[in-house]
């Protein structure tokens, strides 16, 4: 069976930051003595023709407050990462927000033409 070109998507997982030595208990309640983990921060780009869909957006920072708080020694702007793929902010057609944490929707304002999709219950809970 031949898949039509319009059904083919390119999917990229883009890691824009990584925290160092994040205690497990910060992620999973009750894991007080289970050590630490290096935790990746990422978002997903799905491309199909003119559609450029982000699943989450990462976060922006004017200062290093988020990086310091979460032990992130290296951060790359999600906008800069997309530019490396020749995608400008106004070319993002849709954003799917998985949940309303800063690291999942903190750069949402950088994409002025995107249609935003978020569960109503998630939005109302914040």
Report on this model:
The protein is α/β, with parallel strands linked by helices. The chain is 17% helix and 32% strand. A six-stranded mixed sheet has the order 4-1-2-3-5-6, with no helix packed on it. Strand 5, helix 3 (102-105) and strand 6 (115-117) form a beta-alpha-beta unit. The model has no long low-confidence stretch (mean pLDDT 89).
Give me the secondary-structure category. alpha/beta
**Main beta sheet:** 6 strands, mixed
Radius of gyration: 16 Å
Helical content band: 10-25%
Given the C-alpha coordinates, what overall shape results? globular
Number of β-strand runs: 6
Features:
single chain, 126 residues, alpha/beta, 6-stranded mixed sheet, 4 helices, 6 strands, 17% helix
Summarize it.
The protein has 126 residues and is of the alpha/beta class.
How does the SSE layout of this entry go?
Elements: E1 10-23, E2 36-48, E3 51-55, H1 65-69, E4 74-75, H2 78-83, E5 94-96, H3 102-105, E6 115-117, H4 120-125
Parallel strand pairs: 3-5, 5-6
Antiparallel strand pairs: 1-2, 1-4, 2-3
């Amino acid at each position: 069976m031949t898949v039509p070109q319009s059904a083919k998507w390119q999917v990229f997982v883009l890691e824009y930051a990584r925290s160092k030595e994040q205690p497990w208990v910060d992620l999973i309640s009750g894991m007080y003595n289970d050590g630490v983990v290096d935790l990746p921060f990422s978002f997903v780009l799905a491309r199909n023709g003119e559609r450029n869909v982000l699943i989450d957006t990462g976060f922006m920072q004017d200062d290093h407050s988020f990086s310091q708080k979460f032990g992130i020694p290296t951060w790359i702007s999600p906008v800069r990462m997309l530019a490396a793929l020749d995608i400008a902010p106004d070319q993002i057609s849709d954003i799917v927000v998985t949940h309303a944490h800063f690291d999942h929707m903190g750069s949402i304002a950088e994409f002025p033409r995107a249609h935003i999709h978020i569960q109503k219950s998630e939005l109302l809970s914040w």
